[in-house]
Specification:
Layout: H1 2-15, E1 30-32, E2 39-43, E3 47-50, E4 54-65, E5 71-82, E6 89-94, E7 99-100, E8 102-112, E9 115-125, H2 128-132, E10 139-145, E11 151-155, H3 157-168
Antiparallel strand pairs: 1-2, 2-4, 3-4, 4-5, 5-9, 6-7, 6-10, 8-9, 10-11
Length: 175
């Protein structure tokens, strides 16, 4: 049990130092312009929505297609906890119960004796128009698990505004 606790603490120490619970409004949006990818990517800092024992981290991402100039907006959600089994998240819906495009998640489980550290990262597409219409409380969605409880996610309004402000400054077609 001590080894697993140590592994979990190590994960937190190395994976989360750049995370903040409430990012300051002045924080920059990161640009990734890799010429080998068919898109230019803008992303918020990693935002920590919850703390020990269940870490929920999210990052809002916008990808601009190099050929068409169209924008794809996504949220990356990472769920990490100490558990025996993965929850196996498999779908997502918005507040109107409409299905959101859900990309194949990445999953990792590391066990030592009787305890395990589970990490699942989900990528969900959110239409840009929905982000622009988000309430002052942010944009809410729910991800559904096959083997565990569902998870309600609220993307903070400030993160949405910063990403959209960066997108609005870019030349070319939108959406």
């Amino acid at each position: 049990m001590r080894v697993c606790a140590w592994l979990f603490a190590a994960f937190v120490a190395f994976a989360l130092p750049g995370c903040q619970i409430n990012p300051a409004p002045s924080e920059e949006i990161a640009l990734q312009d890799d010429k080998f990818r068919p898109f230019v990517e803008y992303a918020t800092v990693t935002i920590r929505l919850s703390s020990y024992p269940n870490y929920i981290l999210l990052k809002l991402i916008a990808r601009i297609d190099r050929k068409t100039g169209k924008t794809l907006t996504l949220v990356s959600v990472t769920f990490a906890c100490s558990a025996r089994h993965m929850r196996k998240y498999e779908s997502a819906r918005n507040a109107r119960a409409e299905v959101l495009r859900f990309y194949k998640p990445t999953r990792h489980r590391s066990c030592e004796k009787r305890a395990c550290v589970v990490n699942e990262t989900l990528m969900i597409e959110i239409p840009e128009t929905e982000l622009r219409q988000a309430s002052p409380d942010g944009y809410k969605l729910k991800v559904f698990a096959r083997d565990g409880s569902d998870m309600l996610i609220a993307i903070p309004r400030g993160a949405i505004e910063r990403l959209l402000a960066k997108l609005d400054k870019q030349p070319g077609p939108k959406t």
